[in-house]
TrEMBL record:
<dbReference type="InterPro" id="IPR010982">
    <property type="entry name" value="Lambda_DNA-bd_dom_sf"/>
</dbReference>
<dbReference type="InterPro" id="IPR059216">
    <property type="entry name" value="LeuA_carph_isopro_dom"/>
</dbReference>
<dbReference type="Pfam" id="PF15943">
    <property type="entry name" value="YdaS_toxin"/>
</dbReference>
<dbReference type="InterPro" id="IPR031856">
    <property type="entry name" value="YdaS_toxin-like"/>
</dbReference>
<protein>
    <submittedName>
        <fullName>Helix-turn-helix domain-containing protein</fullName>
    </submittedName>
</protein>
<dbReference type="GO" id="GO:0003677">
    <property type="term" value="F:DNA binding"/>
</dbReference>
<feature type="region of interest" description="Disordered">
    <location>
        <begin position="60"/>
        <end position="84"/>
    </location>
</feature>
């Protein structure tokens, strides 16, 4: 849950992060204790930190791990007689 701690550090305190997200400070404390953030709050934290803390870091189980490069997986269709 390093990402949440970095978000708290970014805003200076749990209370400041909570204020920015429009939640009570107890919610942030609960996330720390459970080591789980609601997906919509992971997106909100990413936006509030201008991408300094990414949603993938906060919830890799939903948004995927950060180390997977985003590539185009569209299959290439070849015509008969074309060479690869």
């Amino acid at each position: 849950m390093n990402g949440l701690k970095r978000a708290i550090s970014h805003f200076g305190s749990q209370a400041s992060l909570a204020r920015r997200l429009g939640v009570v400070p107890m919610a942030v404390s609960h996330w720390l204790k459970r080591q789980r953030i609601p997906p919509h709050q992971a997106i909100a934290i990413e936006r509030a930190t201008n991408g300094a803390v990414r949603r993938e870091e906060l919830r890799p189980d939903i948004f995927g791990p950060m180390d997977i490069p985003q590539t185009d997986t569209t299959p290439v269709v070849q015509k008969a007689g074309d060479q690869a």
